[in-house]
Amino acid sequence: PENLSIFDPVSPPAFWIRDLLYLVLGVAAVIFVLVEGMLLYSIFRFRHRESDGAVEPPQIYGSKPIEIAWTLAPLLIVFVLFLVTVRSVAEVRPSEPPKGAMTVQVIGHQWWWEYQYPQGFKTANELHVPIHTPIECHLLSVDVIHSFWIPRLAGKTDVVPNHPNRMWFEVQESGLFLGHCAEFCGTQHANMMIRVVVQEPEDFEKWVENQRKPAMNDPTVRAGRDLFLSQACVNCHTVRSTRAAGTFGPDLTHLMSRATLGAGVLANSPENLRLWIQNPAAFKPGCEMPAMSLNPKQLGELVAYLETLK
Amino acid sequence: MSAIPAALMPREEDWKLPSRGKTGMLCLIAAESAIFTIFVVAYIYYIGKSLSGPTPAQILHVPIFDTVCLLSSSLTIHWATGALRRGKSKAFLLWWGATLALGLKFIAGTAADWYRMIYHEGFTVKTNLFGTTYYSLVGLHASHVIVGLLGLLLVFVFALAGKVKPEHAERCEVFSYYWHFVDFVWVVVFTVVYLIGR
Amino acid sequence: MVSQSLPHAGPHAGAIEDRRLGGAGWLEWVHEWVVTVDHKKIGLMYIVYALIFLAIGGAEATIMRIQLAFPESHFVSPQVFNELFTMHGTTMVFFMGMPILFGFANYLVPLMIGARDMAFPRLNAFSFWMTAFGGLLLYFSFIGGSGVYGAGSAPNVGWWAYAPLTAKAFSRGHSTDYWTLALLLSGIGSIGAGLNLVVTIFCMRCRGMTLAKMPMLVWLNLVMGGMVLGGIGPLTASQLMLCVDRYLGGHFFDTQAGGSAIMWFHFFWIFGHPEVYILVIPAFAFASEIIPVFSRKAIFGYPVMVAATLAIAFLSFSVWAHHMFATGMPSYGNAFFVLTSMVIGVPTGIKIFNWLGTMWGGKLIFSTAMLFCIGFLFQFLVGGLTGIMLATAPFDWQLNDSYFVVGHFHYMLVGAIIFTVFAAFYYWYPKFTGRMMDERLGKWHFWLMLIGFHMTFDPMHITGILGMPRRIYTYEPGRGWAIWNLIITIGVFIQIVAVGIFVWNLIRSYFRGKLAGNDPWDAWTLEWATSSPPPPYNFAVEPAVQSRRPLWDLKHPDDPDWKYE
Ligand code: HEA
Ligand code: HEA
Ligand code: CUA
Ligand SMILES: [Cu+2]
Question: Hey, what domains does chain C have and what are their CATH numbers?
Answer without folding.
Answer: 49-563 (1.20.210.10)
